[in-house]
Each structure stands twice: as structure tokens, then as C-alpha cells.
Amino acid sequence: MTWLTAAGLTIAVGIGSSWSPVHTSLHTEILMEDGAPYYIPVRATAISGIPIHWNNPTPTHHTVTHNGCLEDRQPCLFDSGPVPPGAEFTVPGLPAGQYGYHCRIHPIMRGVLTVTDAPSTPSQL
């Protein structure tokens, strides 16, 4: 089994003459940091319907709040509330689109999540 990681996306696949998944642990991972750029990667890409995890390895509480939560005309699609040090916040999956988000505690912390539709067939490795 081979583990592939690209831009926070982790996939476990069997390697052979053709692509055949042995085990799939698919998610997008974003780290919260105390220094710039604050969310790593600051511009993340995920696949629709796949979980997105924000991990907080810092000694400080942070939030992950969709920018729509502050605007009357847009729905609030995710708001973690305070994420304590060493904890994580997970969104089970989002539809395709672009989602700006920020930390309510530290407004300078901002990120963008782009969610794309899943490809219809797996690409060859």
C-alpha cells in the first residue's frame, strides 16, 4: 500500500498494473497556526462530499467560521465555535464552490476553501 499526500489530501492506494483502491482515507486537512499565513494552506482545495479537518496544534483557541455567517444574504455553512489547543474541527463535506472563512477570535486569520466536484473516474498514478 502506498500513501499519497498532496495539499493536505491523503489517499491510501494499492499499486499494481492498474489502479485499485485497497483502502481510502480521503480528507482534506488544514492547520491553524499562530503566525502568518495562519491557516495552512491558506488556499486549500477539497473534493465535494469529502470531510475537511482543521487541526489546531497551537496553544491558543481559534475558530473556523464561514464568512457567510457574518452576512445576512448568505447561509452560514460552518462555524466551529472555539477549537481548543490540540483539537480539530471537521465539516463532513461541502458542495462545490468557494468558501472564505476566518477566525472570530483573531480576525486577521483568513483562508479560502475551494471545493470541486469529484472526478468521475480515478486518475492513473
Commentary on this structure:
It is a single chain. Helices cover 0% and strands 36% of the residues. The chain has 125 residues and is mostly beta strands. The protein has one domain (29-116): Sandwich (Immunoglobulin-like), CATH 2.60.40. The strands form three sheets. A four-stranded mixed beta sheet has the order 4-3-6-8, with no helix packed on it. A four-stranded mixed beta sheet has the order 5-10-9-7, with no helix packed on it. β3 and β4 (39-40) form a beta hairpin. The two termini are 13 Å apart. Residues 1-24 have low confidence and may be disordered.
Biggest sheet strand line-up: 4-3-6-8
Low-confidence stretches: 1-24
Strand content: 35-45%
CATH homologous superfamily assignment: Cupredoxins -  blue copper proteins
What is the CA–CA distance across the termini?
13 Å
Query: What's the gyration radius in Å?
Result: 16 Å
Q: Could you say what the CATH topology is called?
A: Immunoglobulin-like
The percent of residues in helical segments reads: under 10%
Under the CATH scheme, which architecture would be assigned?
Sandwich
Which features characterize this protein?
Immunoglobulin-like, four-stranded mixed beta sheet, 0% helix, globular
